[in-house]
Structures are given as structure tokens and as C-alpha cells.
Design a protein that fits this description.
Layout: H1 13-36, E1 44-45, E2 48-56, E3 63-73, E4 76-80, H2 91-98, E5 101-106, E6 109-117, H3 120-133, H4 136-142, E7 150-156
Antiparallel strand pairs: 1-2, 2-3, 2-5, 3-4, 4-7, 5-6, 6-7
Length: 157
Amino acid sequence: MAGEQGTGGAPSRQQSGLAQTMQGLVTRTHRAVYQWSGGWLGEYMGPMRALLLTTTGRKSAQPRAIPLGYFRDGENFALIASNWGRPNPPAWWLNLQAHPEAEVLVGRRRLHVRARQANAEEQERLWQRAVRSYPPYARYQRGIERAIPVVILEPIG
């Protein structure tokens, strides 16, 4: 994973670059399989369930699809905007802040959603749940200054 500790205590550029390259390759492959199969394949990402989020690019205004781990919170979907523990927020979250309406493919179901950042109560409750299901989130948070937001996707229409 990006930002993992090497033997010297801090990640080397080579480790970080290699990890980012591998993460990009895995993400592109997962996205291609999810899209190609229409949701028949790709619904799981390791121990987590995955959805395919399509946002509108904040600069390009073009559709941008990315597979992301999620968990349900009632009818909503909760995402963690960790960006693998990098100091900058993930592009998909920046896109959603500029254009909150998006589309998700969850298995074979396509839904229109509206994104928002979790309120304080939701953030605390859902963050604890996220860390229980994927412990590296806690390490990501300790390694950066920004607060990692929980993003809520609410189905619309």
C-alpha cells in the first residue's frame, strides 16, 4: 500500500511509486471487469463489497468511473475518502464536491445518487464501523493531517 513503512521508517520514493503504480493497475483492471461484465463480476474487492462510482469530472466535465469499497447504512452507501492514506483527498471526492449527483453500479443495479459528507454523528459511527471492517483506515488517518471524510451516497429518483 502507498505510504507503508519501509525499513528506514519512511516510505522511499521507489516503494511509494511502485505501490501507486500497482494500485492504479489494480483499480483500472477492476473497473474494466466491473464495466465489461455489467456488474456480474467485480462486486467484491478483497474482504469488502465494491461498487462502481461514476462521477462528473470537476475540470473535464467527463464521466469518471472508479471501483470503491463501501458498506450500507440503511438505504445509503458509505464510502471512505482515504486515498490510500495520501495527504490529498481522492479525485472522486473532489468531483463529488463539485457535482454531487452521480451514478453507482452495485452488482447489476444502477442507481442515481447524491453525495454528501457525513455529519459529525454519522462520521464517528461510520468511521468506527469502517475501521473494524478494514483496519488500515486507522493507520491511514494517523499518517496524514487531513481528516478522512466518510461520504454518504443517498439514492435519488
